[in-house]
Amino acid sequence: AQKITQTQPGMFVQEKEAVTLDCTYDTSDQSYGLFWYKQPSSGEMIFLIYQGSYDEQNATEGRYSLNFQKARKSANLVISASQLGDSAMYFCAMSLPGGNKLVFGAGTILRVKS
Amino acid sequence: GAGVSQSPSNKVTEKGKDVELRCDPISGHTALYWYRQSLGQGLEFLIYFQGNSAPDKSGLPSDRFSAERTGGSVSTLTIQRTQQEDSAVYLCASSLIAGGRTDTQYFGPGTRLTVL
User: Fold this and answer.
1) Is the minimum CB–CB distance between A105 and chain B shorter than 8 Å?
2) Fewest CB within 10 angstroms: A1, A43, A97, B84, which?
3) A29-49 pLDDT, tens per residue?
4) Under an 8 A CB cutoff, do B91 and A45 touch?
5) Does the beta carbon of A76 lie under 8 angstroms from any beta carbon of chain B?
6) Given pLDDT bands bounded at 50, 70 and 90, which one contains residue A56?
7) Degrees to nearest 5, angle at CA A87 with A10 and A104
8) Taking CB atoms and an 8 Å limit, are A102 and B45 in contact across chains?
9) Distance between alpha carbon A25 and the CA centroid of its chain, in Å?
10) Closest CA to B101 of A8, A101, A35, A33
11) Distance between the two ends of chain A, CA-based, in angstroms?
């Protein structure tokens, strides 16, 4: 069965520094998508970044980049130049062929310190 | 444009009552999804609609849960005879085309359901 593992329940980072949030996944499918979402305390789920399993380049979106290592089945999120507003829960998710549902990890709480 | 909207934002009900949760997807999005998030947990898939196809109900936890999507747009998730373990945030998402590699789901603000 498909599974997403986020091993860091909580992380702290100093403002303006970079932080890496870990995500590993398990699937036997060759075609899949990997997503990161941010969930602030207000509760909404905000899409951050996407990586397709066939994409050769690591995805980047502004201060977010995805360190995709297919052989290791990892899709770590890197946030550069952390800001106080980055404090939130971060979820890694995987979509499967047909795109009909996302499988989510348990999430990592990130706290940015000033 | 407008994002995914959900109503009500909060719902408190008594055990045994039925509740209806509404989702209005982004205009033009053909796929609609329901997820449930229990306190401090990740999201759990419930049901998925794509166009006129039969919905994927594989995530519904019991037959007390049902959902419909009228006219390919608005969806209603119904929970009958609510139990305390149904207390959670119910999130709706929509996407433009299901199946594409770049299909991204956009979420609504959720409905927080509390069953007393």
Assistant:
1) yes
2) A1
3) 888 999 999 999 988 899 999
4) yes
5) no
6) confident
7) 60
8) yes
9) 11
10) A33
11) 41
